[in-house]
Amino acid sequence: MAGKRFKPGKADRLLDPKRKEIISPEQVFDHLQVKRTDHVADFGAGNGYFTVPLAEVAEHVYAVDIEKQMLDLLKKRAIEAENIDYIVSSLEQINLADHVADKAVAAFVIHEVPDLKKAFGEFKRIIKPGQKLLVLEWEAIDMEMGPPLHERISSQKMKEIFEENGLKPEVHHFHEAVYGVMAVM
What we know:
Oligomer: single chain
Largest sheet: 7 strands, mixed
CATH topology: Rossmann fold
Shape: globular
Order of helices and strands: HHEHEHEEHEHEE
Strand order of the largest sheet: 3-2-1-4-5-7-6
Number of domains: 1
CATH class: Alpha Beta
Distance between the termini: 22 Å
Radius of gyration: 15 Å
Strand content: 25-35%
Structural class: alpha/beta
């Protein structure tokens, strides 16, 4: 899969207010059914588009990103949030203990991961059995926002990736350009 990794120098794009028109954190949290007592992993947290609002609705958030610079930007945005752990890690070998998360979201990052089998193995290890993973990605259509078309993964292909990893996926389109695939671990 591995598209080009998002460059931290462009991090301000991730907080563009236009993103809320396409997908808001609240829509995602409602779909994932995040509760106040949940510990939630944000895989590919970046500068915190989902992490900061998650910290307001969940008991604890694990912000995981391969780029330390992105997590540093997130720390500056989340200065008052005391319930976030910042984990510099790839998604193929995540520096978290087994079964620590009640829910997890991987937003707009799976198309960058070289070994999806390893990443899904890590998701299964970290998310508690019977709990949910939600992967958000850009639909394979041409548009200004998001990665180039050749790096996008269609919702149908993502559904197949979930199935190949032993999961029963449910596909939901938040917008014509953005979909989510969710499964119980």
